[in-house]
């Protein structure tokens, strides 16, 4: 691992400890080869908010997301949420909580550490929130389908192409 990557990973570990210290905050777990929150590549993949449900390795949404990340050659992408506190699905559509700016500041720390070349929103809500509140990311912002939508809609066979286009800006 290069020195730059080591320093990024060390800084991400410090942020991970801060997330873990906050009740009801959550971060994407590591699962070989997926690095989750500790991914230190120039690709940042961002959800809107973690749900309140558990996310065991066998969960269909986790399998869809992590297996497709591996197949799309994005195992080392940094996986995160814009708002770290667990909440009901799409809760941020109903209005932003009072501490939303605190979470934006935390997310900006992640961006400062990683200096990404591409930021990909997981779903339209994450995209809209970043487009509206993080103008500096607009030139590198992409959009992929949300893994729960993929599973619900039976689109797993099309997910890798959607993800590759969003991450790598390519057509299959």
SSE map:
Elements: H1 3-21, E1 43-47, H2 60-71, E2 78-81, H3 100-114, E3 118-122, H4 124-133, E4 141-144, H5 147-153, H6 156-168
Parallel strand pairs: 1-2, 1-3, 3-4
Helix pairs in contact: 1-3, 2-5, 2-6
Task: Give a verbal description of the structure.
The chain has helices at residues 3-21, 60-71, 100-114, 124-133, 147-153, 156-168; strands at residues 43-47, 78-81, 118-122, 141-144. By secondary structure, the protein is of the alpha/beta class. The chain has a single domain (3-22, 36-168), classed as Uracil-DNA glycosylase-like domain (Uracil-DNA Glycosylase, subunit E, 3-Layer(aba) Sandwich).
What is the SS-derived class?
alpha/beta
Tally of strands: 4
Question: What is the overall shape?
Answer: globular
Strand content: 5-15%
Q: What would CATH call the architecture?
A: 3-Layer(aba) Sandwich
Helix content: 40-55%
Biggest sheet record: 4 strands, parallel
What is the element string, with H for helices and E for strands? HEHEHEHEHH
Enumerate the strands of the largest sheet in spatial order, edge to edge or round the barrel: 2-1-3-4
Termini distance? 30 Å
What value does the Rg take, in angstroms?
Answer: 15 Å
CATH homologous superfamily name? Uracil-DNA glycosylase-like domain
Separate helix tally: 6
- pLDDT under 50 segments (min length 5)? none
Average residue-wise pLDDT: 94
